[in-house]
């Protein structure tokens, strides 16, 4: 299972890189009135796809490591920042981000104008990225921090 944890840690960088790429493509598309091209769709697909892969690996780890069992003691966990983060905040934050990314990708494809497509993707991807950044166990976070690289 250590290999799965290591893969999950490494994939965070792919999610972040493709997230920045997709957000940048949407922002440039909006500011320069570009057509919503295959490259824009590809950047969105890479961001959403890697996020979904990351969530699947995270869910396997979540259940394998037993963090799900702490949900029954959710109120008791609120006082313990370590347990609260791993059993509640991290998993639900990442699930919410993945849902927002999927909604943003789907809605942007259905918009009638290129400007609306870029704007929709930019809004949803940016909010999703903020949630991702807030729920990653960065090394500077006192009790929950993890190394930047496995």
Report on the structure:
There is one protein chain. By secondary structure, the protein is mainly α. The protein has one domain. 75% of the residues lie in helices and 0% in strands. The two termini are 13 Å apart.
How are the secondary structure elements laid out?
Layout: H1 2-31, H2 38-64, H3 74-77, H4 81-110, H5 114-135
Distinct helical segment count: 5
What does the largest sheet look like?
Answer: none
What is the H/E string?
Answer: HHHHH
* Mean pLDDT metric: 90
Total strands: the figure is 0
- What percent of residues are in strands? under 5%
Shape category: elongated
What structural class do you assign from the helix and strand content? mainly alpha
Distance between the termini: 13 Å
Rg over alpha carbons: 17 Å
What count of structural domains?
1
- Quaternary organization: single chain
In which range does the helix fraction lie? over 70%
Summed up, what is this model?
Helices cover 75% and strands 0% of the residues. It is an all-alpha fold and 150 residues long.
Using brief descriptors, characterize the structure shown:
single chain; 150 residues; mainly alpha
